[in-house]
Structures are given as C-alpha cells and as structure tokens.
Design a protein that fits this description.
single chain; 29% helix; Alpha-D-Glucose-1,6-Bisphosphate, Chain A, domain 4; alpha+beta; 147 residues
C-alpha cells in the first residue's frame, strides 16, 4: 500500500525517536493506548490482531474514523486506510533503524468531496496531527521503562 500522491491533501513528516524501532512499533501496535499519548485521539479500539484486514475504530477531534490495517511489517511498516464523512485517508508509518534509534517517516493522503472542499483547513490539521504523532511517540517511547 502507498498513499495517494495525487490526492488533494498529502502530507509527510519526519522525526528522530531515541528508542528502538521495536519499542516504537509496540506503541503503534497498541491501538487502544493511542489516546494516552496522542492528544487529538479520544479513543481507539482494534477489532482483532495487528494484521492486514483487521479493522479499528477511533475518534480524533470531532471525527469518528473507521479504518482497516493494510500493511503490517513489524517493526518497519504500518499502514491503514480510514474513512470518515466524505474522506478516505491512506496513512503510512515507516520506521527506519538508525544506530539504536528510529528515523520515523509518517505520510498520509486524503481524498473525497470533503478533502476538495476543505483542502487548506484539512492540510493544516493533518500537518499538526502528524507532528503530534511524532511528539507523542517520542514521549511514549523515549521515557524510561518501569521495572
């Protein structure tokens, strides 16, 4: 799976996380805990195992998003397609090991009538959201583990 680079809304953000890809993967794969470290996510529930075809439902801001995992390659790739009112989003996490830490690239495309109508607003919102993913993952995974 890839994002749709021809969609009306496309954003990519990169960051360095001072934790191993395995540790970052654990945080991403624990969908039900997203609301504990991503400030925009109010709830999330995975309806099965972390594998292609598994669905999950989550609330981000005012939106309820129904998503399906498409790519699951532990600990380097995680991708899904999500749908909300008038929008289809394709979201990919790329985790690259780099000398004991993780170079993270997050990319997302949005398409549909709502994306065309609210392009500028949604692009700003998406940029902030991708930055919040990186910041939240840093907080979640760079913190010392408790014994």
């Amino acid at each position: 799976m890839q994002i749709n680079r021809d969609a009306p809304i496309v954003s990519t953000k990169d960051g360095i996380i001072y934790a191993t890809p395995d540790r970052v993967w654990e945080a991403l794969a624990d969908v039900s805990s997203w609301s504990a470290w991503h400030p925009e996510i109010r709830s999330a529930a995975l309806q099965g195992a972390v594998e292609p075809g598994t669905q999950f439902r989550w609330k981000s801001g005012a939106a309820t998003i129904n998503s399906t995992l498409q790519v699951v390659e532990q600990p380097t790739l995680l991708g899904w397609v999500g749908r909300s009112t008038g929008l289809t989003a394709r979201h990919m996490f790329h985790l690259h090991p780099d000398d004991g830490h993780t170079r993270l690239t997050i990319e997302e495309s949005m398409e549909g009538p709502t994306a065309r109508l609210l392009k500028r607003f949604l692009l700003r919102m998406l940029d902030r959201s991708l930055e919040a993913w990186i910041a939240g993952l840093k907080r979640r995974t760079e913190a010392p583990t408790s014994s």
